[in-house]
Backbone:
C-alpha cells in the first residue's frame, strides 16, 4: 500500500489496521510518498529513485494500491517505465463529490479505508473467497457511514478521531517514507 497526501495517508493507515485485524496472515508494506518525483527515474528528476531502489521498495511483482490526493494519471505517468507499473492501482480524485463530509468525499472517490480493504482483497489472489466476509463487512461499513453522515451532517466520531493504534506486528513492515 502506498499513499501521498494527508487524507489518503490517514485512510491507508486505517485500511492497514483493518487488514491486520481481519486478515492477520497478510503481509502489508506501507509506503508514504512525500516527494512525488521520487517515483520517477533519476534521469528525469534529481529526486528520482534508481530502478534498484524503486524495485526494493515497491517490489517487482506484487500489487501496489496507491492512495493519492490528486488525479491518478499523475502517479501512472511518474511510474510508467518502472518494472512493476502494470501492478500499480491508483485511487485518487475522480471529480465526484458535493458538499459532503470528509469521509463521504473519500468514499465517492474510493480512497476511503473500506474501499482500500476491498481493493486489497480483490487484488491479492490468495485471499479470494477466504476474505469474502471481510469484503461484505466493508461494503456494509460504507453504507452505514453514508447513512450516519446524511442523518447527522458529520462523520462518526470513530472516523473523525481515528488514530493509528497498532505497532509493527510480526511479518509486517512498520512502514517507510519515500
Residues:
Amino acid at each position: 500500500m502506498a499513499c501521498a497526501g494527508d487524507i489518503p495517508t490517514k485512510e491507508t493507515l486505517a485500511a492497514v489496521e483493518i487488514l491486520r485485524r481481519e486478515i492477520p496472515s497478510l503481509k502489508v508494506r506501507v509506503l508514504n510518498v512525500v516527494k512525488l518525483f521520487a517515483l520517477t527515474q533519476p534521469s528525469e528528476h534529481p529526486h528520482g529513485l534508481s530502478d534498484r531502489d524503486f524495485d526494493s521498495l515497491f517490489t517487482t511483482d506484487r500489487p501496489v494500491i496507491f492512495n493519492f490526493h490528486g488525479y491518478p494519471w499523475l502517479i501512472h505517468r511518474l511510474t510508467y517505465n518502472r518494472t512493476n507499473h502494470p501492478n500499480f492501482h491508483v485511487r485518487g480524485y475522480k471529480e465526484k463529490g458535493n458538499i459532503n463530509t470528509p469521509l463521504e468525499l473519500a468514499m465517492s472517490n474510493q480512497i476511503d479505508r473500506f474501499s482500500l480493504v476491498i481493493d486489497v482483497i480483490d487484488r491479492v489472489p490468495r485471499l479470494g473467497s477466504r476474505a469474502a466476509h471481510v469484503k461484505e463487512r466493508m461494503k456494509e461499513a460504507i453504507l452505514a457511514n453514508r447513512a450516519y453522515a446524511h442523518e447527522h451532517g458529520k462523520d462518526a466520531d470513530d472516523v473523525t478521531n481515528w488514530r493509528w493504534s497498532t505497532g509493527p506486528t510480526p511479518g509486517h513492515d512498520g512502514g517507510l517514507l519515500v
